[in-house]
Amino acid sequence: MLALENIKKSYKGQEVLINASISIAEKEMVSIMGRSGAGKSTLLNIMAGLIKPDSGRALFNGNDLTAIDEESLAAFRLKHIGIVFQDFKLIPSLSLSDNILLGIYPRKDIKDSDKTSRVNELAERVGLKHKLKEKVDNLSGGEKQRVAIARSLVNRPVIVLADEPTGNLDSATSDSIMALFRELHQTMLTSFIIVTHDKDIAQKTDKTYVLQKGEIRS
Ligand SMILES: Nc1ncnc2c1ncn2[C@@H]1O[C@H](COP(=O)(O)OP(=O)(O)O)[C@@H](O)[C@H]1O
Ligand SMILES: [Mg+2]
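# magnesium ion complex -> structure
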């Protein structure tokens, strides 16, 4: 479903990805481990079509994301790929429901009433239905990440890419977020790629890849 083939990426002459290849099937839950600076975020951004590699292909169902124009790519990403960040990237002054809605707001092919019901459904799935009108500012870190996860799933993507999703959380909260990913994986049949430097987190997925010296090993 999602594959990187022989990806190279350098920043100002510094080689970060040298020959990175990986293939993720539908309904997989995997992790990619690597130390800080190994190129994990770069790799994830290439998978999402957010940055272009210097060479190599990023294939989604056979279509090369490195070869399509920005506008089509943005539309494609919105429908098919969910993204979760370490620092949540929510709007603190807005309510939970508005933050989740922002994930689906640009879609013209979905009715407003359906958007609202999806927001409610996702809030329930992440255990925050009772706080829908609460401002994100008033939530704990773990709750904020739950909102971000709800937002990542509101378009019903086939895959969610999570970049150090537990990096800002204590270990008990990290475990509960990993349990939530597991549950969502099982109930929504979404693929998850969890990027982390933490072995304990990686072990909670079905398969772990290691990014080292610009290559991915399984
Ligand atoms: N936009 C950029 N410009 C220059 N260097 C960058 C840029 N993004 C990342 N890097 C460098 O590339 C390397 C890998 O970064 P990154 O992909 O963020 O690694 P990780 O997420 O594993 O910590 C680091 O040395 C980082 O400083
Ligand atoms: Mg990173």
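# post-check
The first helix runs from residue 40 to 47.
The domain at 2-217 is CATH 3.40.50.300 (Rossmann fold).
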